Amino acid sequence: MKPTAATDLLTRARTWLAEDPDPDTRAELTGLLASVEGDASEEHARAWSELSARFSGTLQFGTAGLRGEMGAGPMRMNRAVVIRAAAGLAAYLRRDAEHGLVVIGYDARHKSYDFARDTAAVMVAAGLNAALLPGPLPTPVLAFAVRHLDAAAGVMVTASHNPPRDNGYKVYLGGELEGSQIVPPHDAGIADRIAAIGSLDQVPLAEGGWEVLSEAEILEPYLARAAAVVDPHAPRDLSVVYTPLHGVGRDTLLAAFKRAGFPTPSTVVEQGEPDPDFPTVGFPNPEEQGAMDLAFRTAAALSPDLVIANDPDADRLAVAVADPGAANGTGWRMLSGDEVGALLAAHLVAKRAAGTFATTIVSSSLLSRIAETAGLRYAETLTGFKWISRAEDLRYGYEEALGYCVDPDAVRDKDGISAALTVAELAADLKQSGRTLGDLLDDLALTHGLHATDQLSLRVADLRLIGEAMARLREQPPTALAGLRVDSAEDLEQGGAGLPPTDGLRYRLSGPSVGSARVVVRPSGTEPKLKCYLEVVVPVASGDVLADARATAAGVLAALKRDLAAAGGF
């Protein structure tokens, strides 16, 4: 007789199998059940472990929607989970909009179209109107569509820059959220309605009745608006190497550059076509080591002015500049998200932008200084564009994870296409004056002090390790790091300073070698990582000491990583 827990697992798995609408996951689960019901063996034990991982809980819906590994079971992304999520969302939307429109986008990952189509079928059957985007397209096109079509909600099926085995389900709301990602209490309200869904057999699915939008209806207006972020009379002399990292950004970005009058970027051939297996990269994230190698190899042959990349759903943008002394030996240096964020801010200030400049608690404080000097309002939010987008009178927002919003009235989210155009405009303008993005970064350091940032990330297989590290830091907060005094230690779970409560810790430090320093520690909201965000600010009296200031900052950041790892036990 097997233990009760094992019997329960088998019961849940067989119940799931009986109502699973997808032949692929049915076959997968059938194989697992055959293995656990067979003779004891190493394969038998592995199958039990896998069954437990899939059926010992439920994938939770939150402000990031759903995201996880694909496969059968309630702890995986699959058609059954998506249909329940869509049914819960439909029930939530029908409180206010009996026949409201839900616009649905999807990327080129495995099952993305199936998840999008199932969502449309649930919405129509629930009495709502549904419209699918015309094909696999960038996330910012979906975010644009919610506002452009005055939709009640939008759904984007994507796992962004996660590994190939993952997929996700991101929700945007119209109305008071103005086409931005969901925030509390909407996430909890949707989650409650998802939890109330009973048997999948009780969720009606329409056979048709949804609309498939044409490119003329949605892509053309998006491209026209994206091209409008740049001055039609500004310089256009700029050569660019571009990689979409096997994602869906290429055609939209190339069309946007053409529409705006820039020369066509040279695409990295090996990574140009959408491919859900992402065969040339370990992780399809331009921040990950090795992801940009092919782009830099292409750049070595073409000698462009810039190298840029989108992540697979093209809501993020990476920028690299020529640097013969680059530590990676490629002759190209990736700019950090904070560096690009500051460059875009300085450019928008020069273009006389008005409104609020916003970023997050884990991003560089340089944006606050740029805004203050320009006489602009500044807002600091929790991590993620779901919070940045809520800043009052938002004109520009960015987060250090390569996300930039340069036109919030069109796309109230990060947009790697319009951001790429804005970076191109800035670089072309500087080039005409014989200057570079690096020169402008030097100017910012001389004006505001050198703001250097870095990260320490711990990727785990066991999520308990993250909780243990956070508990250790709460119980024994450090009093000094990298030879700097910890002046304050804030537990962000308590909220305060205008921020909602969140699982995070923030330390402010000072010492003779720097003007100030800051550390924020938090679990990632989308990946199994504990992330530590570091910033050091070093005063710069003149250009002659800029190199020394950078060396000082690099040394302090390295020491912060070492001491923080020791304090957190990782």
Strand and helix map with partners:
Layout (H helix, E strand, L loop, with lengths): L3 H16 L3 H14 L5 H14 L10 E4 L9 H15 L7 E6 L5 H14 L3 E4 L6 H10 L4 E5 L8 E8 L6 E2 L4 H10 L15 E2 L2 H13 L12 E4 L6 H11 L5 E2 L25 H10 L3 E5 L6 E6 L9 E3 L2 H14 L5 E5 L5 H9 L2 E5 L3 H4 L5 E6 L3 E3 L10 H17 L4 H12 L1 E10 L4 H12 L4 E2 L2 E8 L13 E7 L2 E10 L5 E10 L7 H23 L2
Parallel strand pairs: 2-3, 2-4, 3-7, 8-9, 8-10, 13-14, 13-15
Antiparallel strand pairs: 1-5, 4-5, 5-6, 10-11, 11-12, 15-16, 17-22, 18-19, 19-20, 20-21, 21-22
Helix pairs in contact: 1-2, 1-3, 2-3, 4-5, 4-7, 6-8, 8-9, 9-14, 11-12, 11-14, 11-15
Describe this structure in words.
Helix content is 38%, strand content 21%. It has 570 residues and is α/β, with parallel strands linked by helices. Helix 4 packs parallel to helix 5 (112-125) and helix 11 (337-350) packs parallel to helix 12 (366-374). It is globular, with a radius of gyration of 24 Å. The model has no long low-confidence stretch (mean pLDDT 94). Strands 1, 2, 3, 4, 5, 6 and 7 form a seven-stranded mixed sheet that branches. Strands 17-22-21-20-19-18 form a six-stranded antiparallel sheet. A hairpin with an 8-residue loop joins strand 4 and strand 5 (166-173).
